[in-house]
């Protein structure tokens, strides 16, 4: 498969606000290292998932790739063009081809805008269609995402819809421009569990129809299992394991991935395989990252080496990368 996105040594550090006393006492700046030197590619036509707990840097990575925020350093190539250097006109074209779907559909919709107007808005902004033509396209899209009769939904407001229906609107709005690439950040995490599968099926339907590529961001490995071709697992700003979904989900090598999998309900709980329990909570934010392997305070297999030396992400078998001293 041809690569569509290439990320090279990407970093995003956010400055930490100092208290008045800290300003008096020290000039040293502290940083939240949300994304701390990650590299990966996304191949055209695949669903590439980034998974991990809150604070691992997955959402920041998605926002960097959408160019909603600027990186501290590193490069992001889309179709071999460095998007961190795009000028206004090129960025406009990029924004037409790359669309987001966010976690909270209510927050991403204007509460004062009718559903139909919200869906046709991107067509008007990008000069693709206007007036009656844009309205017809929006009605068609409402029917495509299962909000029927479309004429009824067109005139409703976000407050009139359920969470699942609002996410369908968000998907319709993302798809109306016929994009190439979707960054879907926890698109089903705020949706009732009984509706998650139908929203995922809708996203897969558009993937087939439009030949889409997805970056899918989730904290739920059970969801990743349902949808992914390849998975990258992040921990405190770094990728710790990356490879084909089946390999990562059935026989992971990194202790953190194995611990995450322990939390996923399985049909046969007796068959625990190589899963291990996880210790403690993930730090709220990656400010004081542990030295050596950043997973060492929670890792039941940590050794002296793990406290001193940071493991590199290396290819341990074809297309499967792991950052752990036990594996390298
Ligand atoms: Fe655990 Fe050490 Fe591997 Fe880190 S490098 S995951 S601490 S065994």
What does this structure look like?
With 328 residues, the protein is of the alpha/beta class. The protein has a domain at 3-104 and 210-322: P-loop containing nucleotide triphosphate hydrolases (Rossmann fold, 3-Layer(aba) Sandwich). It has twelve helices and twelve strands. It has helices at residues 20-25, 58-65, 88-97, 115-125, 131-144, 150-154, 163-175, 193-210, 221-227, 245-250, 255-262, 304-308, and strands spanning 3-15, 31-43, 47-51, 73-78, 81-82, 98-101, 181-185, 213-218, 230-235, 238-244, 314-317, 320-322. It has an eight-stranded mixed β-sheet, sandwiched between helices. The protein has a four-stranded antiparallel β-sheet with strand order 2-1-4-5, with helices on one face. Strand 4 (73-78) and strand 5 (81-82) form a beta hairpin. Helix 4 (115-125) crosses helix 5, helix 5 (131-144) packs across helix 7 and helix 7 (163-175) runs parallel beside helix 8 (193-210). The longest helix is centred in the middle third of the chain and has 18 residues, at 193-210. The chain is globular, with a radius of gyration of 21 Å. The mean pLDDT is 90. Iron/sulfur cluster (SF4) binds at residues 255, 293, 295-296, 299, 301-302, 306, 311, 324-326. Iron/sulfur cluster binds next to loops.
């Amino acid at each position: 498969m041809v690569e569509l996105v290439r990320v090279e040594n990407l970093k995003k550090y956010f400055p930490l606000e100092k208290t008045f006393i800290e300003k008096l006492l020290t000039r040293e700046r502290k940083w939240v290292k949300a994304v701390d030197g990650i590299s990966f590619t996304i191949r055209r036509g695949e669903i590439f998932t980034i998974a991990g707990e809150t604070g691992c840097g997955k959402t920041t990575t998605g926002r960097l790739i959408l160019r909603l925020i600027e990186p501290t350093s590193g490069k992001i190539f889309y179709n071999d063009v460095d998007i961190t250097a795009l000028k206004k006109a090129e960025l406009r074209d990029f924004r037409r081809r790359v669309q987001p779907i966010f976690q909270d559909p209510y927050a991403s919709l204007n509460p004062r805008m009718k559903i139909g107007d919200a869906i046709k808005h991107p067509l008007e902004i990008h000069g693709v269609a206007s007036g009656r033509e844009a309205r017809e396209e929006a009605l068609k899209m409402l029917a495509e995402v299962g909000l029927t009769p479309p004429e009824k939904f067109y005139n409703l407001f976000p407050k009139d819809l359920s969470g699942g229906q609002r996410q369908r609107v968000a998907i319709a709005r993302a798809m109306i421009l016929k994009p190439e690439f979707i960054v879907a950040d926890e698109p089903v995490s705020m949706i009732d569990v009984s509706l998650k599968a139908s929203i995922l099926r809708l996203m897969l339907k558009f993937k087939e129809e439009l030949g889409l590529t997805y970056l899918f961001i989730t904290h739920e490995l059970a969801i990743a299992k349902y949808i992914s071709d390849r998975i990258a697992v992040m921990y405190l700003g770094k990728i710790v394991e990356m490879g084909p979904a089946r390999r990562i989900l059935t026989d992971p090598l990194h202790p953190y991935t194995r611990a995450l999998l322990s939390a996923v309900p399985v049909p046969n709980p007796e068959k625990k395989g190589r899963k291990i329990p996880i210790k403690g909570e993930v730090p709220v934010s990656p400010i004081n990252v542990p030295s050596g392997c950043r997973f060492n305070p929670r890792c039941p297999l940590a050794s002296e080496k793990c406290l001193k030396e940071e493991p590199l992400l290396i290819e341990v078998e074809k297309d499967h990368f792991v950052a752990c001293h036990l594996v390298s």
